[in-house]
Amino acid sequence: METEEIRLIPADIHNHSILSPDGCDEPMKMAERACGLGIKHYALTDHIENEKLDSWDYAGAMAKSYGVFLEIRERFAGRMEVYYGAELGQALYDLPQAERILAEHDYDFVLGSTHRTRTYPRLDRVPDSDEDRYRCLDEYFEEELRLAEWGKFCSLSHLTFPLRFISGDVGGAEVDMTRYSAIIDKILETIIRQGIALEVNSAGIRKGLHVPMPSVEYVKRYFDKGGRMVTVGSDAHRVADVGADIPECLDMMRDIGFGEICVFRKKQPIFITI
Fold first, then answer.
1. Residue extents of the structural domains in the chain
2. Phi, psi (rounded to 5 degrees) for 71
3. pTM score, two decimals?
4. From CA 231, how far away is CA 263, in angstroms rounded?
5. What is the 3-state secondary structure (H, E, C) of 135-162?
6. Is 230 exposed, middle or buried (0-12, 13-18, 19+ CB in 10 A)?
7. How far, in Å, CA of 220 to CA of 7, rounded?
8. Nearest residue to 85 via CA among 176, 6, 15, 28
9. Nearby residues of 248 by Cβ (< 8 Å), 6 or more positions away
10. Residue 27's CB: how many other CB atoms inside 10 A?
11. Tell me, what's the pLDDT at 5?
């Protein structure tokens, strides 16, 4: 009888619960799944969409989040390190508000993300034309560069996020990414200079791209430029996806030359051998 290989998952520090508008499961259930998988370093990073705080009860979710973190940390003490996290989207749309949120919450770990652009508030609904696709990507990478230059977060999340909707199984379009080589280089150089990590987000593998976000080309480019701070996350929004495809991401990173990933406590990196 064949036995299934158990792949170790040292960390998963990008997860969402019902404290996010698109989360499906209770925070404790998410953490139970992580501990059950043998994950040693775990963070819930529920959404804070900075440009539309009034569109959902983000204030209520943020108010609950620290108590939830403390409950999870106590429950799994000695078995799993738990970090107080958040995913801050669209920080640049209202910088004073973003900075106030960060000042009011003593997060261990903050992901910096761009989920929409000025012209395209829904990246999953970009019109099916080359003009729109490239305009969306132009705006997205320009926003990512400005976000990196602001730099008040720990890890830059899913660098190639729009491709999940524009290409792959979902959008199906062929995109000439060479036209973004220069600006992606600037983004990578900026986060290295700023001491910001690059996230390798495994959700692209299971959500139609079949590769992480960013893919091996960009992670290697980051490594070749001297970048060594990498976080890994499943971007799970339901229990079943916690830890999903992270072993494949770790294999990719080892092949590139990485020997460590990092997590964050009080916004300071802690390196973990992989």
1. 11-113+154-162+197-273
2. -65, -45
3. 0.96
4. 6
5. HHHHHHHHHHHHHHHHCCCCEECCCCCC
6. buried
7. 23
8. 15
9. 202, 205, 212
10. 21
11. 55
The pLDDT of 230-256, averaged and rounded, is 98
Q: Cα dist. 188→170, 198, 228 in Å?
A: 27, 8, 11
Q: If one looks up domain 11-113+154-162+197-273 in CATH, what number appears?
A: 3.20.20.140
Give me the pLDDT at residue 2, please.
Answer: 46
From 79-88, 115-124, 131-140, 142-151, the region with the lowest mean pLDDT: 115-124
Give one DSSP letter per residue of 57-112, joined into a string: THHHHHHHHHHHHHHHHHHTTTT-EEEEEEEEE-GGGGHHHHHHHHHHS--SEEEE
Residue type present at position 175 = V
Contact of 15 with 43, CB cutoff 8 Å? yes
Preceding amide of 212 cis, omega within 30: no
**208-213 own/partner pairs: CB under 8 Å, 24+ apart:** 208/164, 208/168, 208/169, 208/170, 209/163, 209/164, 209/167, 209/168, 209/169, 210/168, 210/169, 212/245, 212/248, 212/249, 212/252, 213/158, 213/159, 213/160, 213/161, 213/163, 213/164
